[in-house]
Amino acid sequence: AQSVTQLDSQVPVFEEAPVELRCNYSSSVSVYLFWYVQYPNQGLQLLLKYLSGSTLVKGINGFEAEFNKSQTSFHLRKPSVHISDTAEYFCAPPGTPLVFGKGTRLSVIA
Amino acid sequence: NAGVTQTPKFRILKIGQSMTLQCTQDMNHNYMYWYRQDPGMGLKLIYYSVGAGITDKGEVPNGYNVSRSTTEDFPLRLELAAPSQTSVYFCASSTGDTNQPQHFGDGTRLSIL
After folding, report:
1. Per residue in A20-58, pLDDT tens?
2. Does the pLDDT of residue A98 top 80, yes or no?
3. Residue of chain A minimizing CA distance to B5
4. Residue B89 and residue B64: Cα distance in Å, rounded?
5. What is the mean pLDDT of residues A68-93?
6. Gap between the Cα atoms of A50 and A80, Å rounded
């Protein structure tokens, strides 16, 4: 079964600065990957997903992620963050049931 | 669209009490899940179900029970509440296709004192 590792547990960043949240996955024959976001006091919701095709995937709220097979990574990026992006972000491989990474807490500082 | 609905949103229990966390979904999903989330620990799967009448243990099932009598409902029961079960509980559902995401409820915050 696939697994993922989120390399940073907390990432503080100033408003309007760029951010990258890192996720590495274990290799497998076929790869699908998801990023979920959890805003304070809410459940998780899908941010974006990679199934196949273009390695650059665009999601909601200006986020994007790049699937890199050679580095087995699927890092999440945003060129300019807002206060409202403060949340916890989870990387997850496919599978039923899902096995989530431990999450990265993004704190955007005004 | 209601999606996945969890009740209650908050609850405080005394040690040894029992309660049922309710979860219902209106998307006709076959698969349903219960997770607990503790600070800094991510989500851990408690139980899941692939259809009515079928349930299976996840990573941390001890102290919990589930049933799945209908497609829509997947209640989680705590029989003898313990302080270690203080957590935020999330219910989720999905079609079961690996290329489809899970849909989550807003959680139940449970404190056991």
Report:
1. 999 998 866 557 889 999 998 889 999 999 887 888 999
2. no
3. A43
4. 12
5. 93
6. 22
The residue type of A92 is A
Give the number of other CB atoms < 10 A from CB of residue B24: 20
Other beta carbons less than 10 A from residue B68's beta carbon: 20
CA distance B103 to chain A (A): 7
Q: Is the dihedral of CA A86, A98, B37, A72 positive or negative?
A: negative
Contacts of A29 (CB under 8 A, 6+ apart): none
The answer to whether B92 contacts chain A (CB < 8 Å) is yes
Q: Are strands A104-109 and A10-14 parallel, antiparallel or unpaired?
A: parallel
Q: Which of residues 48-77 of B touch A (CB under 8 A)?
A: 48, 50, 58
* Residue among B41, B90, B94 minimizing CB distance to A43: B90
pLDDT of amino acid A27: 65
Peptide bond into A12 cis (omega under 30): no
Above 80 in pLDDT, residue B43? yes
